[in-house]
Design goal:
Strands 2, 4, 5, 6, 9, 10 and 11 form a seven-stranded mixed β-sheet that branches. It is built from no helices and eleven strands. Strand 7 (about 65-70) and strand 8 (about 75-80) form a beta hairpin. The chain has strands at about 1-5, 10, 20-25, 30-40, 45-50, 55-60, 65-70, 75-80, 90-100, 105-110, 115-120.
Amino acid sequence: QVQLVESGGGLVQPGGSLRLSCAASGSIFSITTMAWYRQAPGKQRELVAGITSSGSTNYADSVKGRFTISRDNARNTVYLQVNSLKPEDTAVYYCKVQVRTIVSMTILTYWGQGTQVTVSS
């Protein structure tokens, strides 16, 4: 099947930056959309940013101008550069990847295990 491994979270002061990574591996024929979501305590999971296979991006209004999503198709990896962090950005960040698998050639959705981002002084 397909495995996703996230990294890059941590504790950062307000105004700081982090770079989150999510690497996919396994029975991958191709990857279509890659995205980052986040879930804060007591809140629903929300879309932060997404990127298509052609590189088109979209962002939540709350992160526009501060976060940048990118992907490395050769490495099956999606990144999220998060700058000018605010306490309200504190959440568990999850990557979501839509994969056309080698076995079935259908598009399946996979989620990463989540990485904690905490913004606090």
